Amino acid sequence: MKVIEYLSQLDRRIVYLVLAFAVMLPLIIPSVQRVRVMTPVAKLFNAVDAIPDDRILMIDFDYDPQTLPEMEPMGIALLRHAFQKRIRVAALSLYVQPLGLAKRALDQVTEEFNQRATSYADSVIYGRDYVFLGWQPPPIVPLLGMGISITSVYTRDYYGYRTDSLPMMRRVRNFNDVGILVSLSGATAPLWWVAYSQTRFGVAVGAGITAVSASEFYQYYQTGQFSGLMIGMKGAAEYEELVETKLMLVDRRKASEALGSLTAAHLTMIAFIIIGNVGYFVRRRSRKGVVK
Amino acid sequence: MNITHDPWVWISGLLTICILSFLYRDNPFYKFAEHLFVGVANGYFLTFTVHRVLIPNLFSPLFNEGRLFFILPFMVGMLYVMRFITRVSWLVRIPIAVTIGYYTGAVIPATVQADIIRQIQGTILTPSNFQAWNAGSNGILWSVILFIGVVCTLSYFYFSREHKGVLGVTSRIGIIFIMIGFGAAFGYTVMARVSLLIGRFQFILGPWLGIIE
Amino acid sequence: MKRRFPLLLVFIFGIMGIIPYYIPHAAYQNFDNGLRNDFLRILSAFAIILGLVSLMRVHHDKIKRKRENWQFSYVLIIGFVVSGIIGLLGGVEGELFLPTRIAGFQFDIQTLYLNIIVPLGSTMFALLAFFMASASYRAFRARSLESSLLLGAAFIIMIGVLPLADRISTHLPSFAQWVMDIPNVAAKRGITFGIALGGIATSLKIILGIERSWLGGKE
Amino acid sequence: MTFVILAGIFALAPPTGVNAYDTPNDGGGSVTVEWQLSSDDAIIEGYEIYRSEEGKDYDLVGFIGRGRTRYEDETENDIAYTYQVAALNNSERFFSETSPPVMSKPQLFDRDATMLLIGMIIFCAIILYFINQARRGKKLFIRKITGLDAVDEAVGRATEMGRPILYCMGIGLVDYIATIASFNILGEIAKKTGQYETPLIVPTSDPVVYTVAREIVKESYATIGRPDLFDSDKVYFVTDSQFAYAAAIDGVMLREKPAANFFIGYFKAESLIMAETGASTGAIQIAGTDQITQLPFFVTACDFTLIGEELYAASAYISKEPLLLGAIKGEDLGKIVILSILAIASVIGLLTRFPILNLFR
C-alpha cells in the first residue's frame, strides 16, 4: 500500500522529468518504426496522384509555429509528391503567421530537387513549376475570390511579382483549374474551404490537420466533402511512407523518425492516468473504511 | 556533440529555455520571451499588411495608376481612425457594419450547405450509403449505428421537453456516444501535444546541441 | 442616425453576402468579387493597422501608469518597432534600401521570423505536453460512467494510433479507425447540427438588427 | 483533311458522339464539349478540340490528355459555335464529325442551389418565428438544465465549509457567445452566494470583460438587498496572456483554497492547467464551454460539465431573456425538422429506387 501511496503523491516536476526522458531517449536511440497506412491518408495520396496535367495542386499552408512538428512534415511530403510527379503547385496562406513556414518548406523541397536535377527540364523553377501566392486578408477574399479569378485576389505574389506575369498562371484562372486544394491547418481553415469554396465552386478539398481537431473533421470526411485526411504526426508519417514506397523517393522523414518518441510518450501518459486513478480509488476506499 | 556556432540558433535555443522555465514557475524570463513574441509577431504582421496588401491593392492603383475609385475604400477605411476622436467615434461603426454584414451574410448559406444538408446526406439510410463504407454487409450495421448515434445525440440537446420517457432513453444513449466522441478527441489531443514536445526536442538535440544529426 | 445607418448597412451587406450563392450571372459575380477584393480587403487592412496601434497604446499606457509587469511592455514595444522597421524599410525579402546583413550576420524579417517567432511559438505549446502529463496523473479520473467511457475510448485511440498497435493485434488499428468513423462521427455530427442552427440564429439576429452588441457604446 | 485519307492504312478511330452545350448554371462565357473515347484511346496522346465561329474555318482551342471525355471551352456569349474533336497521335489527327451549333449564355439562377435555397428559407423561417414569439412576450418553456442543480449544490457546500468560491470566465472577449452566457450564470451565482455571505472571487483575462463582470456582481448583490457585500478586490483583471492567466488562477486556488471552482465561458488549451490544479485541491469543480476541443478535459477533471449548447440553454433558463429563449426554441424546432428529414429520406431511400442522395448534393 505504501508504494501506491507514494506513487500517487509524486511532485509535478518529477512527472515532467519522466515525460521529458520518455520523449528524448527514442530520439537519441532511434528504432525503425513500420508505418501502416490507413484509408484516409491513402485516399488523399490517390486524389493528389490523380491530378490531370492541365490542373494544379493548391496547398493552403495554414499551420503556424504552434503546430509545426505535426504539420511541416505533411507540407514537405506533399511538395515532394507534387514535384516528383511534375504536378504544378500554387501555395498560399489564409493567415500571415504561416507565411514564414510555407516559405521554409518550399525552399527546402525545391533545394532537394534542384540538387538532384540534371537539366533545366527536370529542375523545379519558380513561376513554371510552382508559385507562392502569399497572404491576402480577410480569409473570405481568397475563399470566394479564387472561384472567379486567382490573379484578382493575389495581384502580387509573396515575392512581389505581378502574378499575371508568371508563366504558370497564364493557364490557371480559377478553381476550375485546380485538381485538389489541400489545406494544412492547426485550426478550422479546411472547414472554410469546404463551407465556402466547395459550396460555391465545387473545388475538391483535402485536409492535413493537427490531431487536436481530428475528431471534428471525420464527419466531413465520411460525407466525401474532404477527399482525404492526414491527422497529426502519424498522418504525416503515413504520407511519408507512401511517398517513399509509391514514388521511390528516399529523403529524410522527420515524422517517421519521431514515432518512437510518440510511442514512449503515449505509454507514459496511459501509465500516469492509470496510477492516478489507482491512487484515487485506493484513497476513496480507505476514506470510506474510516467512515464505517 | 558538435554544438553549433550560428548565433541565431543560440538565440532560438535560449528563447526556448525561457519558455520552458515556465514549468518551474512564472518568472521574468518567461514574461520577457512572451512579450518579445507578441512584439516581433506584430512587426511581421505590419510588414505584410503594408507591403503585400495596402501598397499593391490600394496605394499603387490609387496613386500610380490614378484609379480614383479607390478613394472610396480609402475614405471608409480611414473611418476606423475616428475611434480615437470621441465626438465622432460612432463613425467607426460604418466599416465595422460593412465587414460584419457581408461576413454574416456569407456564413448562412455556407453553414446550411456544409453543416446541415451534406451532414443529413451522410446519415440517410440508403443502399448507396451502405456501400460507401466498402465493408460489405457490415456497411448496413455501421450506417444504422451512425443513424441511431446522430438521432440520440440530437435528442440530448433538445431543451423543450423534460428528459423523461422515450426522450430520457434516447438522451442516455446520446451521452454515451458523446463521451466516446470526447474520448476520441482526448486521445488525439494527447498525440498532438506530445508531438509538439517531440518537435522541440528534435530542435534542441539536433541543430542546437548536435547530439542527433 | 448614429445607430440606424450602421444597422441599415449591416442589413444591406448581409443580403449582399447571401445573394452570390444563387446568382451565377457573370456581371453580378464580377461585382461581388470586386466588392470583396477592392473594399473588404482594404477595410480589413485598415482594421489590422488600427488594432496594432491600439495594442501599442495599451502597453504605452501600462508603462506610464507603472501597472504590474510594465517593464516587459518596453520589450514588446521595442520588439514591435525594431521588427516593424526591419520589415517595412528592409522589405519582405530584404530587397529594399535598409541593409539587412552586416558582416555575415543577417537579420531580415524572414530570419527574425525563423529564429524568434518559431522557437517562441512552438515552445509555448510544447509546454502543453507537460501540463497534459501532470493533468493525466492528478486530475483525469474515471469518476463516473461518462468519464470512464471517455477514458476507455481515449486509450483505444492512443494505442491504436501507434505502430506498436499492429504488433498487439492487426485488428486494433482498424478498431481505432472504426471508433473514429462511426461513434465519433455520430456524436460530433449531432453536436454540429446544434452549433450550425445556433450560428444561423446568431447571424440572422445580427443582420436583422436584433443583436446590436457589436455597435458598442450607449448612444 | 487530305492527309487523313493517306494515313488510312493505319488510321486510328476518332472520338464519336461529339456533343456541345452551354455550360449550365454559370455566368455564361463557357461551352462544355463532350465525346465518347476513341476506341484507340489507350495509344493516342490525347484529344485536340477545334472550334469554328459561325461557319468560318476551324482553329485549335484546346488539348486534353487521353481518357478524358469532357472539356470546358471559354467562349463569347451569343455567338454560334460548332466543334470537332480530333484524336492526336504523334502529329497525326483523326477528326470526329462536327457537333450541332451552340451558344453560351449566362443563367440568372443556379438550379444546383435550389435545395440550398429551400433549406436556408426553412431554417431561417423557423428561427425568426420563435424570435418574434419571444419578442412579443409569449411564454416559452425550457426544461431545467441538470447542471444548474450541481451549481446550487456547489454553492451550498462552499457555504457549509465557510470557504470562498472561484468563478473563472476563461480568455474570451466580451462579444463571444460563451462569455455572454457566462455573464448570466455569474449573476445567478452572485445572488446565491450573497444570501449566505460566501465570498466570490472573479479574476478576468480581459479589461472589458472585467468591467462587465464587476457591474453584474454589484447589481446581483443590490437586487438581494446586500450592496455592502461588494468587495472591489474580489473582482479584478489579471492579465490577457493565456498561460500567465492560468498560472494566476492556480495561485488563487492554492492560496484562497476555494471550496468550489467554476470554469464557465470560452477556454482554449489553458483549461487543462486550471482544471488540474483545482482537482488536486479537492474542490468541487463545475465547467461549461462551447469549445468542443476543451470539453474532454473538463469532463474528466470536473464534477459536472455543461456541454456546448447546454451552456446557452442554462444561461437562457436563468436570464429568461426573450431573445435567448427564442433562439433556443427555434433551434429545437430546427432539430425536429432535421430528425424528420432524416426519417422520411431514410424511408424513401430504403423502400424505393429514388436516388434520394441527389437531393442533398
In short:
The complex is a heterotetramer of chains A (292), B (213), C (219) and D (361). Chain A is α/β, with parallel strands linked by helices and 292 residues long. Chain A is 54% helix and 13% strand.
General description of the model:
The complex is a heterotetramer of chains A (292), B (213), C (219) and D (361). Helices cover 54% and strands 13% of the residues of chain A. With 292 residues, chain A is α/β, with parallel strands linked by helices. In chain A, helix 4 runs parallel beside helix 5. By secondary structure, chain B is mostly helical. Chain B contains seven helices and no strands. Chain B has helices spanning 7-20, 28-64, 71-78, 93-123, 127-132, 138-156, 165-208. The longest helix of chain B has 44 residues, at 165-208. The relative contact order of chain D is 0.11. Chain D has three domains: 13-95, Immunoglobulins (Immunoglobulin-like, Sandwich), CATH 2.60.40; 113-127 and 324-360, no CATH class; 140-320, Rossmann fold, CATH 3.40.50.1220. The model of chain D has no long low-confidence stretch (mean pLDDT 87). Chains in contact: A-B, A-C, A-D, B-C, B-D, C-D. At the B-C interface, helix 1, helix 2, helix 3, helix 4 and helix 6 of B face helix 1, helix 2, helix 3, helix 4 and helix 5 of C.
Task: Kindly estimate the percentage of residues of chain B that lie in beta strands according to DSSP.
Answer: under 5%
The topology string of helices and strands of chain B comes to: HHHHHHH
Strand-pairing-aware structural class of chain C: mainly alpha
Distance between the termini of chain C: 10 Å
Please tell me how large the radius of gyration of chain C is.
26 Å
Strand content of chain C: under 5%
Structural class of chain B: mainly alpha
* Number of continuous helical runs of chain C: 8
Q: How would you sum up the major sheet of chain C? A: 2 strands, antiparallel
Runs of chain C in which pLDDT lies below 50 for 5 or more consecutive residues are: none
The best one-word shape of chain C is: extended
